[in-house]
Amino acid sequence: MKAIHNFNAGPSALPKEVLREAQAQLLNFNHTGMSIMELSHRSKVYEEVHEQAKSLLKELMGISDKYEVLFLQGGASLQFSMVPLNLLTEGSVASYVLTGAWSEKAYEEASKIGETSIIASTKDSNYTTIPTDTTFNLPINSSYLHITSNNTIYGTQFHSYPETGQVPLIADMSSDILSKKINIDSFSLIYAGAQKNLGPAGVTVVILRKDLLPNIPASIPTTLNYNTHVKNNSLYNTPPTFAIYLLSLVLKWVKEHGGVEVIEERNNKKASLLYRSIDESDGFYIPHATKESRSNMNITFTLPTEKLTKEFLAKAVENGFIGLNGHRSIGGCRASIYNAVSYESCEAFSHFMSRFKKSNF
Ligand code: PMP
């Protein structure tokens, strides 16, 4: 089969080693004679997988015992509602920084639940930037400040995070979790759907500070209450066992590859290579994001005409470069280069970009 370079935005590329390991264990997991999918979520064998995923994530991200790690369902989208349901209490206001479609959605959900405020927005720039000044004047009765750390659709990323003092900082890290070293202690809650950097769709990771838990109202529905999942170690109801198993394999893969620092270095190199192809193209490839706000995960650009963009995308597929169409809401091109996308795939794509430019300039 022809080599495929997978630049899908999510679900997206998984490490080949992980897929091979899952394949080898598919019919007989750990000498049980069964697939992991057929085991009880209450069994000892599954419990080990669950605990391994949790402890590897804590180790790789430097998560201390001040935090709980949860494996939930409903995607990052459910967190748009769960965060305010649990934390936006009567008399307080939740502040949102709008940097793209996903933060707009998170804000809209919170607005259905309680009082909200848009503390900053880069909508006027067509979301080409992240706010440059992140010293926000937060209301004194703030329940939290919410940001989207990486904007998957527009290809922008926070490279430093707002200082919020006593106000809890909450981040939707769906598209850059585990791609670079972060200081967990700056955040009160982080959530991320797994299907970009962590594994397959179906599991959502939530990392939250324990001191948030006592103030969560008991009146909210049981399965939407973080306390329910904390008390039951994410086993209140049947968890997505296969997705959590693959998450544990992806985390093991990150560890075997030297951990987050090594992955970060590689991600920086991959992104620099593709941004260089754009910057050195004499305007043939036009980036969406401004330089300071560029994402290392989603590289967004267009070509001088709609016709050329279409031709580029079609030729890319012919050459084995998959998933490069921009999000349906903005069009253009987007190369998503999450952790599992190799430097070699980026190099091959960069050569393709030069060849395409030469033949169409
Ligand atoms: N937030 C961000 C930053 C995303 O990129 C996405 C999905 N692409 C979502 C939220 C929504 O995630 P889900 O489909 O898991 O609900």
UniProtKB/TrEMBL annotation:
Cofactor-binding details, from the entry: Binds 1 pyridoxal phosphate per subunit.
Catalytic activity, EC: 2.6.1.52
Cofactor section: pyridoxal 5'-phosphate
The reaction(s) this protein catalyses: 4-(phosphooxy)-L-threonine + 2-oxoglutarate = (R)-3-hydroxy-2-oxo-4-phosphooxybutanoate + L-glutamate; O-phospho-L-serine + 2-oxoglutarate = 3-phosphooxypyruvate + L-glutamate
Residues noted as binding L-glutamate in the record, renumbered to the chain: R42
Cross-referenced Pfam families: Aminotran_5
Gene3D superfamilies linked: Aspartate Aminotransferase, domain 1, Type I PLP-dependent aspartate aminotransferase-like (Major domain)
Main subcellular localisation: cytoplasm
Binding site for pyridoxal 5'-phosphate: A76, S77, W102, T152, D172, Q195, N237, T238
Residue intervals of the Aminotransferase class V domain: 4-348
Known partners and oligomeric status: Homodimer.
Family: Belongs to the class-V pyridoxal-phosphate-dependent aminotransferase family. SerC subfamily.
Protein name in the entry: Phosphoserine aminotransferase
Originating species: Litchfieldia luteola
Gene name of the record: serC
